[in-house]
Amino acid sequence: MKQDYDIIIIGGGLLGCATAYQLAKRHAGNILLLDGNEIASQASARAACLLTRARIKPALMELVQETYDCIEEIESLLDESLELQMCGSITIASSEASLKGLEALEEAACRFGIPNERIGKERVKELLPWIEEEAVDVALYMPTDAFIDSALLCSGYAKAARKLGVTLRSNCKVKEILVEDAEVKGVRLATGEAVTAPVVVNAAGSWANLLMRPLKVGLPFTPVRSHFWITSIDATRFPANHPFTIIPDARAFTRSDVGGLIIGLRESQCQAFDLSTLTEKLEDFDFNKAAKWTVLDECAPLLKKYLKDIDDLPIAHYMSGPSCYVPDAKFIIGPVARYKGLHTVTGCCGGGVAAGGGMGRLAAELILGETPFVNPELFSPERFGEVDPFSAEFQQRCADARSNKKGG
Ligand SMILES: Cc1cc2nc3c(=O)[nH]c(=O)nc-3n(C[C@H](O)[C@H](O)[C@H](O)COP(=O)(O)OP(=O)(O)OC[C@H]3O[C@@H](n4cnc5c(N)ncnc54)[C@H](O)[C@@H]3O)c2cc1C
């Protein structure tokens, strides 16, 4: 039977677009990417945009390095800048526990060849004039860490994929994934049109399980709330391109952005969302914004040691969105055993900006039967056995994996 496409990708966020790019680069045939909204408009437009290189899990470092490589390749392919800002990062330790974490990170960075140096209080103050240097016991500076506008990066993957022949259709919702005799056949659009392909990649982010449910497949993640606050502009105090910080003792990160300070805080009990209540657009979803001050009240005292006047800083913006969390805080990439031809790339665990290029590469390699560049078992969709992502109990397991997050 004639197929309309060789591969259909559902979802035009970072993970779908990165997969499309990686497949097209490998000449994977006739590829269609569909998004029910505009491309790069959902979770991928809400990130804090940190591209933290050093990770304690080695495979994650490989995935992040691939994103950095993709950025260079795409800039050269498109002959335009994706505006990577190499501002560096500073990880700060002020307790025994966080010192151990910092040492592990330092060791991982050295092993992987990521430039890093311990810096003293004076140098920290020089790099971050707003910080109370007395609160800093040990600081690890990684000058090649960067941030990037996540929507721009996502559009970059999409444009590069299109240049390499991928067909992109936005505002084109998939209603169902078509299967027959345990084999994928294509998708049916909300318009009723059926589009055929022997391979379908579910990269629908927070919505991925809604498409899997009729197939009796449960992907092991749930969307949990990630959020950050942005102070009003004070360009003298928070100049652009100062290093971003990771402060595990305060469960916080900061990044300066056009003269304001982005403050990311992680609560001790992270909020999960029932998948069946998701709206088609995140703009219409209430991430329990009313709780933003309660969370700030819980978390800000931990940061006060480093940012003394946090109670008086005017907050100009608040951003919240979903991160798809998995109980072991590792991504979900690869084939879905129950149906031949069905693949997924999701479960971003708050790291799709940093690791998206690598996640897309692994997904592409597994679809094409190439030797994977990292151990795929770590990310297998099947590794938890059967799960019910619609159950409150499973959603709580995912939220627990995100609660008290300390890293970058
Ligand atoms: C507040 C916040 C801060 C973050 N900070 C960072 C950070 O600093 N660093 C980092 O690495 N990561 C960060 N992240 C995580 C990052 O944003 C995500 O990992 C990434 O955006 C996930 O991309 P995605 O493609 O899975 O999801 P999305 O961007 O949501 O894309 C999924 C797409 O699927 C489409 N879709 C869904 N259902 C259908 C359907 N039925 N038919 C067609 N299309 C469909 C949707 O329209 C959507 O465009 C942050 C996230 C949040 C919320």
TrEMBL record:
It holds the Pfam family DAO. One of its GO terms (cellular component) is cytoplasm. SUPFAM superfamilies: FAD/NAD(P)-binding domain. Residues 6-366 form the FAD dependent oxidoreductase domain. PROSITE patterns: PROKAR_LIPOPROTEIN. It comes from the Bacteria. This is FAD-binding oxidoreductase. It comes from Phocaeicola plebeius.
